[in-house]
């Protein structure tokens, strides 16, 4: 509960911190992910080993995921993209009004949530916290999907991280790929 309050306060501070876009900027943005639910409490940042680690979530359980993107010189775009359509993974909460959703039924089946910054009123970061329910397609097989987390600043410095999510019938955990 304390972490949810801390993330909420941090989110409010980030979304309210106006900044100035510098003339030059070669520093990549940062991200923080917090996944909580069913006994799991895992925090990720850009230094986490996304390439060799998998997030296992129990099928049918609800998890809260907080995603914060930040950059001292202002955030231009934040994207959370899930390579699966509902009901494979559900987002039961409505998105905050600043966020837009695009669900593509192309062969890649992308569920994209996007926030766009305002160059005239730049802020150091923005966040989203929402419930996620991994249902999968089957009731017994281990299923794998990818989630993309992207943060871009006004100088087009981009941080892009892919998190592999495996949906299965056991307790949630972090494990090797």
Task: Give an overview of the whole structure.
Mean pLDDT is 91; it is low at 4-10. This protein is 8% helix and 49% strand. The protein has one helix and twelve strands; from the N terminus they run αββββββββββββ. The longest helix is centred in the first third of the chain and has 15 residues, at 2-16. The protein starts with a helix and ends with a strand. It is mainly β and 177 residues long. The strands form two sheets. It has a seven-stranded mixed sheet with strand order 7-8-5-10-11-3-12, with no helix packed on it. It has one helix at residues 2-16, and strands spanning 30-37, 40-45, 53-58, 63-70, 75-82, 89-90, 99-104, 110-116, 125-134, 143-153, 158-168, 173-176.
Key descriptive features of the protein:
single chain, 177 residues, mainly beta, seven-stranded mixed β-sheet, five-stranded antiparallel β-sheet, 1 helix
SSE blueprint:
Elements: H1 2-16, E1 30-37, E2 40-45, E3 53-58, E4 63-70, E5 75-82, E6 89-90, E7 99-104, E8 110-116, E9 125-134, E10 143-153, E11 158-168, E12 173-176
Parallel strand pairs: 3-11
Antiparallel strand pairs: 1-2, 1-4, 3-12, 4-9, 5-8, 5-10, 6-9, 7-8, 10-11
Cross-sheet strand order for the largest sheet: 7-8-5-10-11-3-12
- Runs in which pLDDT lies below 50 for 5 or more consecutive residues are 4-10
Helix content: under 10%
Distance between the amino and carboxyl termini: 30 Å
Average pLDDT number: 91
The radius of gyration over CA amounts to 16 Å
Which outline best applies?
globular
The major beta sheet can be summarized as:
7 strands, mixed
* Number of helices, counting only DSSP H or I runs of 4 residues or more: 1
Assembly state here? Answer: single chain
